[in-house]
Design goal:
Radius of gyration: 17 Å
Strand content: 15-25%
C-alpha cells in the first residue's frame, strides 16, 4: 500500500513537479487505519516516517501517534536512531558519507529483532542495547508491547531498497537542507560545536542523503510533508 497524497522521492524533491502537500496528523491516521483493513488478521500495520536529519520526523511521528491513539488504535512508535552504532563504527575516515550511510544504524538487528517480529505478532518483549547520538557506550533497554495494531517506525534511510517491501505505508517528510542544518545547530547534533556541525552536514549528512536518493530510486509510496518543527 502507498500513501496517495503528493509522493516525494528520497532526494526531497516533490515527484512530478507537483505541489507539496502537508496532510494533518488526523488525515495520516485515517489513511493508516484504512490500510489496516487490508492487512492479514493478527498482524500490525507497519508505517515508515522518514526524511533527512532535522526534517521533523520525530515531531510528525508524535502527532501521528497521538492522532492514532485518539482513534482508539494501539500504537508502538519506534525511533530508529536509538539503534545507532557507536561513533567508532558509524563514522569513518575514508569515504565519510558512504561509510555513514552504510554504518550509521544497526538496521539488521532493528528489523530482525524488533520491527518485523512486532509487526507479525503484535506483542513482543525484547531487551536491546541502544545508544543516543552522543553516547560512547550502549545502555540496556527493555521493549514490551502487547496487542499492537500500528507500528510507526521513524528514522533516516528507511527507504533503502531492502526495506521497502516491509512497509504497508511510508511517509517522506520534506525539508530543505538549510532548514535541516538550522535545526541541527539549534539542538547541537552529536554534541558538536557549530562549526563542526556545519562541516559534518556538508561532508557527511548531505552527501549521504544524495547516496540514499540514488540507492532508493524508484520508490514512490508515501506523501510529502513540510514540517515546521524538529
Amino acid at each position: 500500500m502507498s500513501g496517495a497524497a503528493g509522493a516525494a522521492p528520497p532526494s526531497g524533491r516533490s515527484g512530478g513537479g507537483g505541489k507539496r502537500i502537508a496532510p494533518s496528523p488526523g488525515a495520516l491516521a485515517e489513511a493508516i487505519l484504512e490500510g489496516r483493513r487490508r492487512v492479514p488478521a493478527g498482524r500490525a500495520v507497519l508505517v515508515a516516517v522518514t526524511g533527512i536529519d532535522g526534517s521533523g520526523k520525530g515531531h510528525v511521528t508524535a502527532g501521528l501517534e497521538a492522532a492514532l491513539r485518539a482513534r482508539g488504535a494501539r500504537v508502538a512508535a519506534i525511533p530508529a536512531d536509538r539503534w545507532l552504532n557507536l561513533p567508532q563504527v558509524r563514522f569513518g575516515r575514508e569515504k565519510k558519507a558512504e561509510h555513514f550511510y552504510l554504518h550509521a544504524i544497526r538496521f539488521g538487528d532493528l528489523f530482525d529483532k524488533l520491527v518485523l517480529p512486532l509487526r507479525d505478532r503484535g506483542s513482543l518483549r525484547l531487551a536491546a542495547d541502544l545508544a543516543e547520538e552522543t553516547a560512547v557506550a550502549y545502555h540496556r533497554h527493555v521493549y514490551e508491547f502487547r496487542d499492537i495494531e500500528v507500528v510507526v517506525l521513524e528514522g533516516i534511510y528507511l527507504l533503502k531498497r531492502a526495506f521497502q517491501g516491509h512497509y504497508d505505508l511510508s511517509f517522506w517528510i520534506d525539508c530543505s537542507s538549510e532548514t535541516a542544518l538550522e535545526r541541527a545547530l539549534a539542538r547541537r547534533q552529536e554534541g558538536l560545536p557549530s562549526a563542526e556541525t556545519v562541516d559534518a552536514y556538508r561532508t557527511i549528512y548531505f552527501p549521504a542523503r544524495e547516496i540514499h536518493g540514488r540507492m532508493a530510486a524508484g520508490h514512490t509510496s508515501g506523501c510529502s510533508q513540510d514540517s515546521g518543527s524538529n
